[in-house]
Amino acid sequence: MTTIDSPVLRVAGRPVGRYVTRPELPARLSPRPYLHPVTTLAGTAVTELSPADHTHHLGVGVAVPDVEGYNFWGGRTYVRDQGPTELDNHGAQRHTSFQLRDPDGFVEELRWVASGGELLRERRTVAATELTDTAWALDFTFSLTNVTDRPLSIGSPATNGRSGAAYGGFFWRARKEHDTPHVFTADREGEAEVHTTRAAWLALASTTWTLVFAGATDTTRRDPWFVRTAEYPGVGSSLAHTERLPVPSGETVVRRIITVVADGRLSRNEAAALVRKAVSQ
Predict the structure, then answer these.
(1) Contacts of 267 (CB under 8 A, 6+ apart)
(2) What is the DSSP string of 61-111?
(3) Quick one: three-class SS letters along 119-188?
(4) Residue range 14-68, pLDDT digits in tens
(5) Fewer CB atoms inside 10 Å of the end CB: C or N, the chain?
(6) Is the predicted pLDDT of residue 4 greater than 70, yes or no?
(7) In the structure, what pLDDT confidence band is assigned to residue 1 with cuts at 50, 70 and 90?
């Protein structure tokens, strides 16, 4: 897998993430820019790229399984009354340019294309900020504008009939380790309790690292969390939970997620304190 023009994010001079703008991937994986590897300040990797269990999981990025029937997630498509099905319907996110590019972040323009046509245009803003000697924050905003002359809508396997599978939007594929990570919010814990809930923040804690995800806008906080720990470690914010998300022609959908990346296994109080600091900066 070769890459071109892949900036490295730095916090206090230390590399914490590589952003791959033009990955050479087969169409079935819905090629798209992604962050990998992302690391803690101590250098521990907290992302995974094309793991054997889901080869279309690409580190940290934006992935949507259904944009007007086109698959920007990768892999099979969930078809109502039929289940996961191999279809020739994959789209791609294509890097256009950087509007801004600094060691601690960038602003990027992308085109979401399928069947030779452009459906969405995205502006992606990513920034890395130091929080403490052992934690930093990744601020990730994406704005999707319908550039067609017709209304579009965003769906998920859940809106297409697969209960509990409302993935699609910001998604972080964490590193699979021997021990299953612990997941918790301010008042819940465990995959069964946290998955599909709305919470101001959500933590995924391994033995040596912790990720704390927070919606940074009112609209983002209304999206439920998609959580997996037992099958694989992954967290996303669901754009289409129970109903398709309409995107009228010329309109824009905006979401912003801030993720705390910390060394060590954080307690509930420590996770809450770091999220407060990250969101207030």
Answers:
(1) none
(2) EEEEEEETTEEES-S-EEETTTEEE--S-B-EEEEEEEEEEETTEEEEEEE
(3) EEEEEEEEEEEEEECCEEEEEEEEEEEECCCCCEEEECCCCCCCCCCCCCEEEEECCCCCCCCEEECCCC
(4) 999 999 999 999 999 999 999 999 999 999 999 999 999 999 999 999 999 999 9
(5) N
(6) no
(7) very low
Closest CA to 101 of 91, 93, 109: 109
| Residues pairing with 138 in the sheet | 128, 259
User: With bands split at pLDDT 50, 70 and 90, how would you rate the model's confidence at 245?
Assistant: very high
CA separation, residue 239 to residues 28, 168, 204, 219 (Å)? 22, 6, 20, 10
Query: Residue 69 has what pLDDT?
Result: 96
Measured CA to CA, the distance from residue 281 to residue 277 in angstroms comes to 6
Structure tokens at 115: 């069947």
